[in-house]
Amino acid sequence: MAEYQTSIKTRKALIRATGELAAERGFNAVSIRAIATRARQNIGSIHYHFGTKQKLFAAVVEEVSQRWRDGRLESALSSLDLSRRDDQACALAAVIRRQADLLFDPQAPEWHCRVLYQLMQSPDALNETFRDAVAEPELRQIEVLIRAIAPHLNDAEVQIHLYVLIAPLLLHADYRKALLRKMGTDTYAREYIDNLVAVCIDQALRQFGLK
Q1: Which residues, 6 or more positions from 77, have their beta carbon under 8 angstroms from its beta carbon?
Q2: Number of other residues whose CB lies within 10 A of the CB of residue 44
Q3: pTM of this prediction?
Q4: Which of 37, 132, 173, 205 could cross-link 103 (Cys pair, CB 3.0–4.6 Å)?
Q5: What three-state secondary structure class fits 37?
């Protein structure tokens, strides 16, 4: 049992170290040696637990993606009738609140958010894995919602509204360190995130003429 627990701890340490380094540098700039040094493990432990660096990277992506897959947006909106204006307003609010809850979950490691950013910038198999498992299903569901609210919009206009909807949250996640430094604090206060979400919801409802 003790050996099993040690093995689990080693795996977690390697995933955490890799995630932190990828968040700082991007996956392409992360070496096996740097991972081992950050995790305080020997290089052989990486090969023993994961086989290859790419499989370790895939484990990092899996960890980051899991929270998003556990509560899919489609499921969160399944009880709403998107042909009704009241439910459309509720759906917009739910999309924004859910994004904020996932991006600023105090229980999640800070590097999770930055890894998301790095994944979206990396045109390789890791990007494809994350895009297929998380990003595309999420964005498609938001597109469905926007088309239900404003069926007159063309494809380009739908894309614009989609990214305007979630951009303030992504900005606060991607540029966390710079914004927090400007604010003179180490972390976003719960009240600040609540206010950010309220402003985003208010702007979205006004944009689409919803109450």
Answers
A1: 91, 94, 95, 141, 145
A2: 9
A3: 0.85
A4: 173
A5: helix
Side-chain-facing half-sphere of 71: CA atoms under 13 Å: 10
Tens digit of pLDDT at every position of the chain (211 positions):
555 456 888 999 999 999 999 999 989 899 999 999 999 999 999 999 999 999 999 999 999 888 888 878 888 888 999 999 999 999 999 999 999 999 999 888 889 888 888 888 776 788 888 888 888 888 999 999 999 999 999 999 999 999 999 999 999 998 888 999 999 999 999 999 999 999 999 999 999 999 8
Of the candidates 10, 200, 179, 30, the one whose C-alpha atom is nearest the C-alpha of residue 115 is 30
Q: Kindly provide the b/e burial profile for residues 77-115, where b requires at least 16 CB atoms within 10 angstroms of the residue's own CB.
A: beebeeeeeebbbbbbbbbbbbbbebbbeeeebbbbbbb
Cα–Cα dist 128/135, whole Å:
9
Q: Which amino acid appears at position 79 of this protein?
A: S
Q: Which amino acid is at 15?
A: I
Two structure tokens written together for 88: 């459309």
Two structure tokens written together for 17: 């170290």
Q: Which residues contact 29 (CB under 8 A, 6 or more apart)?
A: none
